[in-house]
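Researcher: Let's try something more involved. This one mixes different molecule types, so please make sure each is placed in the same coordinate frame as the others.
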Amino acid sequence: MNTENVTTPITIPQSQRHEMIINLIKKEGFVTTEALVQHFKVTPQTIRRDLNELDHQGKITRHHGGAGQANSSIENTHYSERQHHLNAEKNRIAAELVRHIPNNSSLFIDIGTSTEAVARALLNHRNLKVVTNNLHVAAILLSREDFTVIIAGGEVRNRDGGIIGEATRDFIGQFCMDFAITGISGIDMDGNLLDFDYHEVRVAQVMMSNARRTFTIADHSKFGRNAMIRLGHVADIDTLFTDAQPPAPLLEQIRRTNTHIVLC
Amino acid sequence: MNTENVTTPITIPQSQRHEMIINLIKKEGFVTTEALVQHFKVTPQTIRRDLNELDHQGKITRHHGGAGQANSSIENTHYSERQHHLNAEKNRIAAELVRHIPNNSSLFIDIGTSTEAVARALLNHRNLKVVTNNLHVAAILLSREDFTVIIAGGEVRNRDGGIIGEATRDFIGQFCMDFAITGISGIDMDGNLLDFDYHEVRVAQVMMSNARRTFTIADHSKFGRNAMIRLGHVADIDTLFTDAQPPAPLLEQIRRTNTHIVLC
DNA sequence: CAATCTGCGAACATAAACGAACATTTAGAG
DNA sequence: CTCTAAATGTTCGTTTATGTTCGCAGATTG
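Model: All components are placed in one shared frame. Result:
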């Protein structure tokens, strides 16, 4: 059979292989390196490189001997122990972000694990006023007695403690704050801010338009990542906090705007 | 469910085995080392290493001869802060109270440390719908994916995570639930329910009038304790859960009503 | 009490998986 | 066509997972 391979050069390009690996993992839950080697007829080293890259992008989770589904860990233990290697980055970015926020200021804080990292980093500030639709953020900030915490009402998502919906949007719209702290699910090469949930996006938009300055936090896994809903454009935000140089096309887009970018 | 009696010539990677062990323990409650050895066809030493690691991660609890479920997450984690005043009593009363609440029912849960104890006790129920103005209650109940948690919006009190005010009252008024779970600051000898905060009382009143049945929890320190604001009368509630026989005059008052009293 | 059994952990050995560095092939631009 | 950069293959030293052996501690039994 091997001799016939010359007539069938099934040279699968890297990008397509990556996509197939992700789909395989989504379907099977887990694949071994060896299985991928046999499936794609490449060397283990190539598969390892693929898996490392996909893991670095946050799309899968690398294990010894193979890889599994990414971080769908909605499971037990509220973000208490796991050091999802992106967590270190998020904390570093958050630490830098809060240096741009003075005491006595007022903030919107949106849904997202990144914004929760910001909330924790804010605990050393004084006398903040915070409006949030994130239950975890509210719980974190409550420990400071000099903070005023206002939470939006509505149904709380089990997944992440987020509160969204029509009523939430109207509630948020009552306030006008100094800063809006938002996360984002993806930024495409044209500079579009993208997210997965329509209602979540609507709330974020209200926060951004009702804040004097908008700070957005996005780790490197967000660059080039696609999502369905358009939240806005990098031009709409004041400062983008990230941990790695964005890809060239995106960087070019940002340079054309007045948006600052802070590498941490 | 596929049958487990598979003869697997392929070796199961560590990460997969760990996941399977967790699921097994979740289903069975407890597994012996020997059972895992036979199931995965590995040596006891490997299983011990697995169990030790998972225990270290807090996902299971190691025992002699095997491992069992981890002590249900919430219990140990973020309740180092709370006041421990009469905590044992409150938990005992809460445990009894939840026995009167069926699965699939809908509840209001009010502000108070007693009601937080109820929330924790409810974690073994299924499929509840809860409307609350207590941030801690919402955070506790979020860990159950089959619960629907709805939180009122507004300023959050640093003191106890309570949310009160006009808007809160209106928000609560939108709902009509099976049960209202409320605490109380004091009950005088005439059977008046008393509290300290006017806004808090108004919210509790709405909950009680919009619920089909009202359960009130009051430990013995509440009997004869005076407070400024009248919330209502024992006649307004359906069942009073407490840990000690009320004083005779109060008991007499209660006997004159249709209110049940449950001693725990 | 001693003898024995059982589960446990430490220490070591081995095979598989891994990552880094370098070589080779392939794809695309000039 | 050549040239270059990216992708892939190859080699080798290192790390990780697992098995194996042995000694220890607590429980049971004679």
